[in-house]
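USER: Study each token:
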Amino acid sequence: FPYLLFIGLAALAMGMLNSLRSFLMPALSPVMLNVMTISSVVLSLQFMSEPILGVAVGIVLGGMFQFLIQVPGLKKQGMMIQPQFAPTHPGVKKIGTLALPVFLSSSVNQLNIIICTIFASFLATGSITYLFYGMRFIHFPLGIFGIAIATAVLPTMSAQAARRETEEFRETLSLGLRLVFFIMFPAMAGLITLRVPIVNLLLEHGQFDRISTQGTAAALLFYAVGLWAFAGVRIVAQAFYALQDTRTPVKIAVVALVANILLSAAFITWTPLGHGGLALATSIAATLNISLLTVQLRKKIGRMDGKRILRSLLKIVPASIAMGVIGWWVGWQPVWDLSGHTLYKAELLVGGMAVSVFFYVIAMWLLKSEELAFMWGLVRKKSAR
């Protein structure tokens, strides 16, 4: 229970530092939870009669250090958190008004997970687990790149919206979307074509057998179809938040939730997709979400630099498909039907990923990708520092 206090303070510190364009320590803070939890597992197994209690202690310590690792950054910015009681302060009232729809939106997301779990409970044994692991693999590129880009663009868009710099606001939004698509479409191609090798190598051990691999790979396939939408929704939603409109995203989230429920019921009733149908329903609902958000945002700001985004996609999508051919070849190797051979499988999978990424980068360089040039410029700037 004390973890709730610490993670709340950590989230507050993260928001403050991000608004001041300080991203490194907030991005590293979740590492502390992993470090403390893993350490508690190792130590509690050796020194405690009930090791699970040690894990609980480790999680509390992880939450505490998630906050403490950001304290030096707050001090450097002169923004240390101090306890105050000022319920009538206009800033408190404004944040409360803006935050309430965000709370509702978060509850909609959690309700979506619960409903999906309920549907999966009526399917074959293991369906809930397959969906859980499938989404974990989706969260890897989504968490590293999608959320990172969305977090980075919010302070800039907020400042531009406050200064009524509409053209600059559009440019930042366009860049955020193009960067997300630049990364997510090849990630989609990789996850779809390499789904069986990835699950086989990382999870197929002990009681996690071949059937479990196939079930998880099916969930991963249908979740991966919507990866671009999962990431894109975060960017477009941030644009609404920058404009201090937190109501529209939650209204559209409710519409997407209803669509997800109806599609899930339809897919598991009238198709043989099983739990894969639930994953596909989630992806379609995310596509509906970003589509409706885009329509509403256009009404607010006018054009969204759509032609530039389309030109970028005309380069990204073909290059991603061509890159996927390499992953398809790796996935069709007979070794994935065999047990063991872990070292060879690792070499094959890592080598295939490396060649695919290299091919994609070269293809985008030949196509004169703006997004690649932008990212290369950031790397050069960091190296110069």
About this structure: The chain has a mean pLDDT of 90.
